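This is your field. Pick holes in the following sequence-structure pair:
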Amino acid sequence: MFVDYLQWFPLFRVGFATYPLLRWLVSVAMLAVVTGLNLLGVDVVAQVSNLFAVFVISPFVALSVAGVMSGRGLQTAVWTSDFVWEPQPPVRWGTFLSVLLWNTSGYDSVGALAAEVEQPGRDFPRALGITIVLVTVTYLVPLAVATSLDAEHVRAWSDGSFVRVASEHVGDWLAAWVTIGGALSCFGLLNTLLCTSARVAVSAAKLRVLPASVAKVHAESGVPRVATALLSTVLAIACTLPFSQLVSISMLFYGATTLIEVLALLALRVSEPLTPRPFRIPLRASPLALLYAGPVLLCVVLALLAPPEAWLLFLASSAAAGVAHARSSGATLSSAARACASGPGWWWRRRPAARYLLPADAAAKAGVQLD
């Protein structure tokens, strides 16, 4: 996607068309910079992300201001008029849903950084609440203004329409700014994704799902260098795939992990009610299950609409993880096969009992919230 944005510039467009390998080399170069930033530590990742957020949002603020000042940026008729949109070819619902969720997912990944935040129980809910509001505003306001400016072509909107609207109604300078902002958004997204995913890989290694060497972290900075390098290598290979296919594969994995997270949350509410938690959703088990019914259903629909190649990679990865965990636990190959067949529930049944149970009065004194 980073490379797709760069194609707006003639130099890159001609270069990618003339030398197909150049597209992959640019992607890998961007990945190398992201890897270097991650190896410097989570503080550097956070500072770069904040800086990029300003660059990404600023061109859309400029477009919104220019549209409103022109007097055409808030034409509500285009939002309420009746029209029939007949897409050609028909909508590929699996890809559509995957891209839609990809644009609004990832909030749970910050949990992987809880150990590196001083007060995650206080800061995470506040940060997530503010983020949801900002994301909603940055989607709706520029979209409302741009569709008002481009009311006569709104039925033909597709990839790159924001850039076209900026060029036609404001100037090429803003179109270039929007393009650079889009490219930087991809850079920033990969930057934070690699940061959180590397720490998830460390946790998986500690659970013996991945090799123990992946769990190694740098003594001074706490950076999981092995996991970061391993994931970067996998991503370099993934850069050869088209964007829509990458999103479909990514969202199948994301849907599966989200489903497991929800099931684990509900199960822990029942099985380990006294385990200390830095943050607790203020709902009992039944209302909590009802709250998550929608996301669970969405995960199931996402899985059903996933393309065959996504399922093939998912099943192969799950089988490899099951075998690796079973073998590292000293199990036989037959038990490893049973582990893969029975899914995450096999690990759940074999997990060690919680060792950090506190009486209610002791927990209250320690300031720990209990279920």
